[in-house]
Amino acid sequence: MKKSVVLYDAECPLCIRTKKWVTLFDWNNRLLWLSLQQMEAQTALSSEKKQEIREQLHLYDPDRQEHIGYDAVTYICKECPLLYGLGRILGVPAIRKAGIPVYRYIANNRYRVGIHDCKDGSCSI
Question: InterPro entries under this entry (predicted)?
Fold first, then answer.
């Protein structure tokens, strides 16, 4: 079975904690987490793409379709058995419409939402 690839910033404590918690629920091992830093070592990324990955979670499904930010979170939930129902709810159009700005707010303010161990300003976009 092919896995979905989740790209995240390994210098961001909130991103690291998200990866840790989601991995606990990925019982079927359907997600492959790859840090921006690992990706840079393996592939030439444009500076724009690096910045996008620092700003929002990115996921590539087995069909190579890209899911970004809120949509990546929704997809991840649907891949985890215990979170599947939440993923379905997050995908409801009205919930998605409200959820996207909430995701952006958290992503843009992740250094203020309970994560106080950011180093070198890595959490301040």
Answer: DCC1-like
